[in-house]
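ok so I'm stuck.
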Amino acid sequence: MKLPYMIKRGSLAVVIVGSLLISGFFPQVVFALPIDEAFQSVTDLLVASQYSAGTWADEEDFTGSIVAGLAYGYEITGDAGCMTACTLGADYCIDAAGGNFFGDEAYALARVTDITQDPAYADAVLKFYNGLDTHKYIAGFSATDRSNAVFYIAHHAVAAHKVGAKDAGIWREALIYYLSLIEDDLAYYPVMSLGVATWALARTGPMDDTRMDPDGLGQAYWADARLSDLPDLLSSHQVLSGGYAGSFYHRFDHTPAGPGFEASGYTEDAIFGALGLIAADEVIAAPEDTGWDFDPEIRNAREALTASVSPSGFVWSHIWVRTGSIACYVYGGELLEAL
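replied:
not stuck anymore, here's the structure
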């Protein structure tokens, strides 16, 4: 039976097997494609590289994230190939999951129903959620890295909300709790966790004065934070100037995670930082009411992200640094959502 959690990303501790290793053959000076060209090149590559079974080489466990991105590819381009890729990928997720979905798979299936108007994909997700012992299932995420837990619970929260699951509110509460456990030295991806959680929380309910950690069980970073603070907190971790401007810092203290690592410029940190700001921006009733207006930050993040894309459509794990970087199809799927 598939576990409710998994190691998601190539990381400080884990490198995704089967990724394309970039070992110094590319220059460190990187030229960004225009946003529309970057979007199209990534979309074309993902459609062309899909196996007939519906997944991508060595990235079967990331099919959900790729399919969710291609749903945006279809909405923007209207390309029938995107529609076919989405349905093939969704069918693979259903067959491979055996009724037990990763968060990004559940989210992808809900998105495929959006673009196909076929309720079968969302119905499979609804059946999954309504058949769970939700509290017990969520407790299982404590066995993995806290950032991976936040990533998957965030996607479950959005998926459960989209399909109308009876326990959708419990998933949202769990996301708040798991986010409150994130701290620089206790999770692989602190700022990415904040980004993906902000995205999910803004998609599933009000960003109001609800306390992040009312019982004091979380980390000190969240002691006085409220949901309404999350977009500004996220924005405070965006790089404002210098060579990596527009990207996001990796850690809350803006230092490298260790020797040989960059403090900022990682593609997934920027993707989910951008998505968090986009979702917050979209729920603003009136800027004068919230003080939120992240259009410049979103634009800067999107422009930075295009530098992670090669002309052939591969997306690297670091936006600018090629030596030691990796390129994965999953980065491309996630990138399409942010662009």
